[in-house]
Every structure is written in structure tokens, then in C-alpha cells.
Design a protein that fits this description.
Helices cover 42% and strands 13% of the residues. With 313 residues, the protein is of the alpha/beta class. The protein folds into two domains: 10-104 and 209-302, Rossmann fold, CATH 3.40.50; 109-204, Putative methyltransferase TM0872, insert domain (DNA polymerase, domain 1, Orthogonal Bundle). It has a seven-stranded mixed β-sheet with strand order 3-2-1-4-5-7-6, with helices on both faces. The longest helix has 15 residues, at 209-223. The model has no long low-confidence stretch (mean pLDDT 90).
Length: 313
């Protein structure tokens, strides 16, 4: 039986945003609509983005329920600036982002995101483009090893890549999991399945998740009005490092200009202020929702400085 989707760090996200009836908020990752519903219940108008056609389809009932205050956009959140400009909403009051794969995607074996149930080796959030099977069955050993090392932090990436190439063609999630387990050694009592890192890496690569995150952060910076709130929930260190570095650079933290050096030019004015420390779930939330364990929330307030016309990778 599939676990219900529970929005992570919901109370903390809503407290950071402080939604009210005169606000327009972007939910950059609609999923099952957990954040959107809480924002709508507080009276805000919500524009929600999701590249997964299933999420857009399943959200139709919520659109009807909230009669004109929820708009669903079937698009990647990296495109939210262009989409909002297209519909005549150049600035918003808050952007919330919940990065990574959703509970529904993980729990649907036919989507191929997890090895808990054998299914097609797919992993595409948008259900279009290059699948995990396409990549693993066509890429050379070096390219596969690079993806596993960079996105899965797999220290034995070359060994795993060699095993994948030798076992091709791979068709199902079970095929991939078995190859990785044989390559790395797997005992039933091991705390963590050795295939976990490979599945994370391939999923991130297939969906360009880190590139999307960098582009989405830049888009949020451009869309937020002065005083607007950016709130980002991430689920692993690769994502959190990107968010942390983005906010550090955007807030000017760590940038020092010496008044003793004549002619030294100050950097651009900070575009964010009041950057929070990392906020993590408490024991009660983790007990109620074990998938919250690795989550981290960071939020900040937009200044009136012009957005920097660049992305952050």
C-alpha cells in the first residue's frame, strides 16, 4: 500500500511565508498539493508548477475547489519567470520549492524511480525525453561512472559503471538494483541498500535536477518583489549546498571589501537578507513521516536590489 504524501516541514514553511489573502505565491513543486492547500487555506492566491502530467491531472479537483485562486502550470519551475511574465504577473510575494522526487513518484512502481517494486527503468518526472534505461544502455562507461560519482557520491562508481555496461541491456529497476548489489556486495542485514546511491544519481541526471534547481533559484530571485519570501526544502547534501551557496552569494555573506584599498569596487547590492540557518524536522515529524528525516529548509527575504542576471550551478 502506498504511503500518503505528507508535506515536509509544512508548519515551518508556512511560518516563514506568512500567507494572507492579499498575497500571490508560487508553489514551484506542486506534487500532491500539500503546500498549495495550506497557502490557499490562509487565503493566498497560488500559482503552482509541476512537470509531471500526473500531478497536474490529479490537481484538477483542487483547482475547482478553490475557485479561481489556484492556477496549475504544467511546466518545469525553471520556466516560472517566463510563464508568469506571459500571463501578466511580473512579481510575486513568495516562492516555495520542495526539491526532488515526490512520494507519489517513488511509490508508483511503473514510474521506475525506486527498486522497492520492480518496474520499467524510467525515472522521468515529465514522462518524456531520455529515460534511465536510454541513458544506461547507451552511455559509455566513463559517462556513467561520472554521473554516479557526481550525483550519487558513489566512491566505487567505476566498478558499478563497468558492471552496468557488462550487463546491458537493462530494462527494469530490478535489473539495475541486482547489478549494483552484485558489483558492491550486498547482505540482507545491511542498513542501506548499495543501489540507493546509483538510483539517486541516475534520477538526478535524467531529470537535470541540479540544473533545474539552479535555474529555479535565479527565476525566483527575479520574480520576488521587495519583502518577498523564498523558502526552499531540499533532501540531500547536493541540493542543500546549491541553495546555501546561492543564498550566501545573494546576501553578500562572506564578501569583504576593504576600505583601506583605494579604488576597490564593491560587489552588487545583496538581493536577499535575513537568511535563515538550516531548519530540520523535529523527532515528532520524523516519527510521523520517516521521509522527512533528511529534509532541510532555508528561507530568506528579498531586498529591493535588482536581480542578478545569471544562474547558479
Amino acid at each position: 500500500m502506498n504511503a500518503p504524501h505528507i508535506p515536509v516541514l509544512l508548519e515551518e514553511v508556512i511560518a516563514a511565508i506568512g500567507p494572507r489573502p492579499d498575497m500571490t505565491v508560487i508553489d514551484a513543486t506542486f506534487g500532491a498539493g500539500g503546500y498549495s492547500r495550506a497557502l490557499l487555506d490562509a487565503g493566498a492566491r497560488v500559482h503552482a508548477f509541476d512537470r509531471d502530467p500526473n500531478a497536474i491531472r490529479d490537481g484538477a479537483a483542487m483547482v475547482e475547489e478553490f475557485a479561481g485562486r489556484l492556477t496549475l502550470h504544467p511546466a518545469c519551475f525553471s520556466a516560472m519567470r517566463e510563464e508568469m511574465t506571459r500571463i501578466g504577473v511580473p512579481l510575486v510575494d513568495a516562492v516555495v520549492m520542495d526539491i526532488g522526487v515526490s512520494s507519489m513518484q517513488l511509490d508508483q512502481g511503473e514510474r521506475g524511480f525506486a527498486f522497492s517494486a520492480d518496474g520499467p527503468l524510467d525515472m522521468r518526472m515529465s514522462q518524456s525525453g531520455t529515460s534511465a534505461a536510454d541513458f544506461l544502455n547507451s552511455a559509455d562507461e566513463t559517462a556513467i561512472a561520472d554521473v554516479l560519482y557526481q550525483y550519487g557520491e558513489e566512491r566505487q562508481s567505476r566498478r558499478v559503471a563497468r558492471a552496468i555496461v557488462a550487463a546491458r541491456p537493462l530494462e527494469t529497476t530490478g535489473d539495475l538494483a541486482r547489478v549494483v548489489r552484485r558489483a558492491l556486495g550486498h547482505k540482507p542485514h545491511d542498513k542501506k541498500d548499495p543501489a540507493t546511491r546509483t538510483f539517486q544519481a541516475v534520477r538526478i541526471h535524467v531529470n537535470d535536477e541540479l540544473g533545474e534547481l539552479a535555474a529555479g533559484l535565479a527565476a525566483a530571485e527575479a520574480l520576488l518583489r521587495e519583502g518577498g519570501v523564498l523558502a526552499v526544502v531540499s533532501f540531500h547534501s547536493l541540493e542543500d549546498r546549491i541553495v546555501k551557496r546561492f543564498l550566501r552569494e545573494a546576501s553578500g555573506a562572506g564578501r569583504a571589501v576593504s576600505r583601506h584599498i583605494p579604488g576597490e569596487i564593491a560587489g552588487p547590492a545583496p538581493t536577499f537578507t535575513r537568511v535563515s540557518k538550516a531548519i530540520r524536522p523535529g523527532d515528532a515529524e520524523i516519527d510521523a513521516n520517516p521521509r522527512a528525516r533528511s529534509s532541510t529548509l532555508r528561507h530568506a527575504i528579498r531586498t529591493g536590489a535588482p536581480a542578478r542576471e545569471r544562474t547558479f550551478a
